[in-house]
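Just curious. Invent one:
>
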Amino acid sequence: MTASAMTAVTEAENANVDDLTDGFHLLIDALKINGIETIYNVPGIPITDLGRYAQAQGMRVISFRHEQHAGYAASVAGFLTKMPGVCMTVSAPGFMNGLTALANATTNCWPMILISGSSEREIVDLAQGDYEEMDQLAVAKPFCKAAYRLNYAEDIGIAVARAIRSAVSGRPGGVYLDIPGAILGQVMKAAEGERSLVKVIDPAQRQIPAPSAVERAIEVMKGAKRPLIVIGKGAAYDQSDDVIRELVEKSGYPFLPMSMAKGLLPDTHPQCASAARSLVLKDSDVVIMMGARINWLLSHGKGRQWGEPGSKRFVQIDIEAEEMDSNVEIAAPLVGDVGSCCEALLKAMDGAGIAPPQNWLDQVHTKAQGNMEKMAARLQNNNIPMDYHAALGVIKQAISDNPDTILVNEGANTLDLARSIVNIHKPRHRIDVGTWGVMGIGMGSAIAAAVETGKRVLAVEGDSAFGFCGMEIETVCRYNLPICTVIFNNNGIYRGDGENWGGGDDPATTVFVKDARYDQMMEAFGGVGVWAKTPDELRRAVYEALESGKPTLINAAIDPAAGKESGNIGNLNPSSVVAQARYPQAKKI
């Protein structure tokens, strides 16, 4: 212990208890002084009392059934608010449960702080076998943007400030804060504790692009014959909604929103090229990447999806310079935040004569209209059992009629088809599996969306994805959140009609219990449960849930044969040549 810390403890022991504070309350005060009012956690040693004290101090503490989902909630809170969501866990196993969500937040560039109790350093370093002993700081470092450990209560204020600034500055990400249990109980004078608190000033300053970079981008845009703007969730996170819309509309370029950027401009906007995705990716000659990375979600900018090699020039807007040239050559890198880059481009576009050729716009419009007309008929079928298109036709109309509802979406076929079918009309009103494609984010994300925005949430889940996080429907009911969960129940993973290739009594590896009554689970916790077997029953149940705001779970019966392997990324789960030869069933997948 430092000399100043020892002096503080000695003086505290001789002080009146009313003039004292401790690590518990310093941590709460450090969060509150920086505007953080909500903690997502799972109580347990040594943080149980911390949650109680936080509630007593007016903070909202949302307690989950599993740390991973508390972490997913915190990460989505960061995406929605641009302030780090805070997840608090117990040591060792609890910390590791939260670590998955922390890594996911970092991968998605969302600000989040994971705070975990831990064993004392002197015990961990000598491997003396403490309760849930683990060097958590060392474990966390590879999976987050930054990691810090506290040793004295007097350092809590500066540690929280560093964590906040690290989480939101530059490219946002996850931060780990390690707090050995004894620190929470350390006592010091309240006045000195108050002086130790730090209010973070402007932690995520705007980063303006270099004028020469803007000029280079304009030159590339001026030469475009078939331009395209790809909008990513980084643009949605930036919350520069008005300037992004102004740039898109002023350019006249078709735009393609990535899934969590849907709604920055409505999917029904006349420049939206989602329904002509294959065409615009393949045939465009200049592509502006706006807060979107050229990663696996875009085939790394290569392959048949992108047309002939070298046929495109890229303008990329990203706050991280190292992102440039990660997969393909970037002709015009714009390093800065999305809003500042868009403002700079808007000014530079004046008088530059930037406009897309009409024949390109006509080509995109014709393709999009044709695809939408083909899809419309599929969405209006009344097949029993329902297929995905019939069920998603209901969801699409429900969101259209209730555009302020936030859609949370995960699964395989449930995710892939909803991404292209369900229109989003407002920014940050679609939350899904993100960059990693992680299953199980649904309930945590839905809870955070409801808590942080106060809006109604429609969570559309595949039955497999729901299995990762389904117990959190108890959390939804406990906090009486306005969340309607719809499970697309096709009795299995991808499909519910799989065969045991060995012919034994065990079910196929991808098959679940037939006609599982997830709706009755919801009823067991006091929520509303509905078993919907037709599009009309599903429609009625969804609209009633959105109108009432009551915690609701709709178990939507989907044809077990309606899905397909690995959604739209079947190439990631291939059957080998040997399997194709040995097992006739492999050819059906």
Remarks:
- The chain has a mean pLDDT of 94.
- The first helix runs from residue 3 to 13.
- The chain is about 40% helix and 15% strand.
- The domain at 380-582 is CATH 3.40.50.970 (Rossmann fold).
